[in-house]
User: Which sequence fits this backbone?
């Protein structure tokens, strides 16, 4: 299972909706040193081309940020549009919240890089109490447990 799939699946199984893009990207620092690291473009492409699960991108009102989540259970009823990848249907969906974004890879990657890259560069991977920062001890334990 891919690292991001493990994170999202475990988070969903604990009753949560999804994880931010900086959280997912930042979690890679807890992968084995031999693992290939991904940026936003590689992550989004891999999710879109995955055949193991369907993932949605939504806006989370609790943390006021974008999240990726696994489409399962009640999340299958979330109004979404499929993101086209290489002219074909992908495993990535946009919630209808994203009316201004065309459902294609180029538009989506551009949006995510604009909204998330500076947080990743500053190592502000997490949001706690509406404040961005590095992972908490509890989050690090969660990440490491997902990567076992």
Assistant:
């Amino acid at each position: 299972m891919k690292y991001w799939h493990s994170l999202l699946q475990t988070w969903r199984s604990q009753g949560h909706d999804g994880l931010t893009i900086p959280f997912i990207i930042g979690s890679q620092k807890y992968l084995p040193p031999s693992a290939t690291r991904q940026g936003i473009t590689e992550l989004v492409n891999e999710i879109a081309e995955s055949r193991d699960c369907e993932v949605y991108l939504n806006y989370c009102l609790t943390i006021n940020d974008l999240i990726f989540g696994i489409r399962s259970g009640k999340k299958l009823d979330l109004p979404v549009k499929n993101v086209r990848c290489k002219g074909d249907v992908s495993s990535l969906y946009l919630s209808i919240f994203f009316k201004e974004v065309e459902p294609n890879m180029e538009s989506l990657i551009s949006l995510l890089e604009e909204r998330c890259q500076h947080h990743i560069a500053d190592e502000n991977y997490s949001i706690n109490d509406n404040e961005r920062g590095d992972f908490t001890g509890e989050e690090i334990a969660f990440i490491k447990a997902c990567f076992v």
User: Anything to note?
Assistant: Residues 8 and 14 are 10 Å apart (CA to CA). The two ends are 11 Å apart (CA to CA). The longest strand covers residues 88-95. Residues 3-146 form one domain.
